[in-house]
Design brief:
The chain is mainly α and 119 residues long. The protein is 75% helix and 0% strand. Helix 1 packs antiparallel against helix 4 and helix 3 packs antiparallel against helix 4. It is elongated. The mean pLDDT is 94.
């Protein structure tokens, strides 16, 4: 398999994770182990699953990890909405992170279609 760092979707998801870590630094202290942690773990899960999938021996194994990453991308989008609705993210930050999250999700779906052409 290829080096995960060469995947454009991995690069974008890694940048998004860094942005989410930055955005959640200002969350209330009582959310440090709640929503902030969930957002961070879900976003890191996207890049981590792509990394692990690249280390597998077949496209079908890799596709399974891409599918898991896609689920994590959906989870990130929900947690971002919740953070905005709770007033933890301003509209601009929410918009930027959500746009990035949707782009990552579209890229994951396209990658999954290439790995599973019969689906």
């Amino acid at each position: 398999m290829q080096d995960f760092k060469n995947l454009q979707v991995w690069q974008m998801s890694h940048r998004m994770t860094l942005d989410i870590y930055s955005a959640t630094r200002d969350f209330p202290l009582d959310e440090r182990f709640g929503l902030a942690s969930q957002l961070r773990r879900a976003s890191a899960s996207i890049a981590a699953n792509l990394s692990e999938g690249c280390g597998r021996g077949s496209d079908s194994d890799f596709a399974r990890f891409v599918q898991i990453a896609t689920g994590s991308a959906s989870e990130v989008n929900y947690h971002l909405l919740l953070a905005k609705d709770l007033g933890y993210l301003d509209a601009q930050t929410y918009g930027e992170l959500t746009t990035n999250g949707e782009s990552v999700k579209r890229m994951l779906i396209a990658l999954l279609k290439r790995l599973r052409p019969d689906s």
